[in-house]
Amino acid sequence: MSHFPLNCTENCTENHPENRAVNSWAAKSLKRVALLTTLCIGATLALSNCGKKDETSTTFATVYTETLSTSCVACHDTPGSGAQNGAGLNFSSQALAYSTLTAGNVTATTSVGTCGSVRLVVASSPSTSYLLGTIIQGYSSSSFAGVTNCTPYAGHFSSLNLSSTQQNNLVSWIQGGAQNN
Hints:
Blueprint: H1 12-15, H2 17-48, H3 60-72, H4 81-84, H5 94-102, H6 130-135, H7 156-159, H8 164-175
Helix pairs in contact: 3-8
């Protein structure tokens, strides 16, 4: 039996049962193909970014040259007041700045409460990076990073006057994985 009647005239799909069955099967098949194509394209796009760093994140070189070496190094250098208060941050070179920011926990004596278990920079997590809690007011809280009675040092809010670009660069660098680039 043929799927297409030999004597088909106008309105054959409505008038002939075999044509209705063929058209229904074809429509369902096209929907399945469209759905599978959409899923494959979506999976391909998702996997194409797998393992890649965020190309829009700020580099550490930018953070260092535009913020740390210009606004922070006066205090966070070996003889600076940051060192005297036990901050343990040394921004005298880009290499030292990166290693002291990413290597450990809060050590400063000016931190309020018990912040010793909090990391200075947590890659991809600006909200739990103590650095941001000390220089961007919106990140500070009395139980910073979920640690009860840990309040970041607030003296930088008024003294640093970082521009929104400098603040956004720091957040972007941390959100992008805090890479040494």
